[in-house]
Design brief:
Shape: elongated
CATH topology of the largest domain: minor pseudopilin epsh fold
Number of domains: 2
Number of helices: 3
Number of strands: 10
CATH superfamily of the largest domain: minor pseudopilin epsh domain
CATH architecture of the largest domain: 3-Layer(bab) Sandwich
Order of helices and strands: HHHEEEEEEEEEE
Largest sheet: 7 strands, antiparallel
CATH class of the largest domain: Alpha Beta
Distance between the termini: 84 Å
Length: about 180
């Protein structure tokens, strides 16, 4: 005995097969795309690069802190990088960065001198800010000082970005 299909039965089966993807199929594809994207992203960025960018941001923020304190307290503040260990810097208040009583503990730090990880070094620099936030390369008093004539560039080893302090304004950019 042969089966007889009515036209309505054949039409119903054809419509059922043309509905599209099921929710399970779509979910599996989305999950697979997410796994592949996570693997590709994880291999494209190393944690060393992320740590280095974080250190450059930290240095910039510490210099900005010195500038803002100079303006807030109407005093001379500054930041200096040590020549003895090229990855050490500190913030100071006053005209002489090397007097220990002038050195200031930064918020969030445990030591007055901030030490970068051993793999990171930076160029030596000393920068002073007056009560207007204007940068100076040397500052004895209001009449005897050396304004920053060209931008001060601080190079951090291994970083694609350098910190540049703009003359007159003291604006700190990452280039």
């Amino acid at each position: 005995m042969s089966k007889y299909y009515s036209p309505n039965t054949v039409e119903t089966k054809m419509n059922r097969n043309n509905r599209g993807f099921t929710l399970v199929e779509v979910t599996v594809v989305v999950v697979l795309i997410g796994i592949i994207a996570a693997v590709v992203f994880a291999r494209s960025i190393s944690t060393d690069q992320i740590n280095l960018v974080g250190q450059v941001d930290k240095i910039r923020n510490h210099i900005r802190y010195a500038q803002s304190m100079a303006m807030k307290r109407n005093e001379v503040w500054g930041c200096k990088s040590d020549g003895l260990s090229p990855g050490t810097y500190w913030i100071f208040n006053g005209n002489d960065a090397d007097i220990e009583s002038n050195q200031v503990l930064l918020p969030g730090e445990t030591a007055i001198k901030v030490s970068l990880p051993n793999s990171i070094t930076m160029t030596l620099f000393t920068i002073f800010f007056d009560n207007y936030g204007k940068p100076y390369s040397a500052y004895t008093d209001e009449s005897d000082n050396t304004p920053l004539s060209s931008g001060l560039t601080i190079t951090v080893s291994g970083s694609p970005n350098n910190l540049t302090i703009t003359p007159k304004t003291g604006f700190i950019t990452t280039q």
